[in-house]
Amino acid sequence: MVEIMPSRTVRARRLAPLIVVAVAATALILVPAPGSLSVVGTKWLSSFGLSIPRADLVFEVTLVLLALAAASVIGWVWWKHPSQRPRAVVASIGVVLAYVTSEALKALFAQARPCSRWVTAAECPPAGDWSLPSNHATLAFGAVAVVAVLLARSALTWAMVGVAVLVAVGRVVEGVHYVHDVAIGALLGMALPLLLTLVFDASRRRRNGSPRRRDVGSDRGTNTALTGSSE
């Protein structure tokens, strides 16, 4: 039995994890608190890092797992759905651009890391290796965004959100980032892959002169692209 639903419904379901993360990250940045929510939260979380053996290694492994998951999804789409290969490339380019933007913002803001203020678990990077935004959070949530725009079902995306949050929190626990660093990194990592893919989809629809198509998902596990149809 094939279930057909409007592409708008599928798109909303697929992007729900990104929307939830975006709202939470924005709240962490904007919600006022005595002494700054980010600074207070960072100091509290980094105090736990001192009691976690090799905390840096643990959280690096989680980022590698996210990268492998995203690469597996891209490989699956490339093999099973050739028509979606351009979208996979565009989403991946979005992650690369997000990383480049993150590096540029670091140089622009030149914010020192929290480990330069307090004793933390991680060895503090040298001066000039700036804190804002977090590259790790940018890459982690960039991987989440790639999966979200390529797969119709959100279960894997939600699971990856959980791992990406662990990566982001881990950077704060290590004492190498403030809470607002990882929140901004998360927003940046999700925004560029998603925006580039949406622009690409709109351009392709105009070029083909066709209306928005309906997504098709089956109980055989067929996954379709954000505005594409099944193979």
Automatic annotation (TrEMBL):
Tagged with keyword Transmembrane helix: yes
Protein name (Swiss-Prot/TrEMBL): Undecaprenyl pyrophosphate phosphatase
Biased composition, class Polar residues, residue ranges: 220-231
Keyword Membrane tagged: yes
Lineage: Bacteria, Bacillati, Actinomycetota, Actinomycetes, Micrococcales
Domain of life: Bacteria
Stretches for region Disordered: 207-231
Bilayer-spanning residue ranges: 57-79, 139-170, 182-203
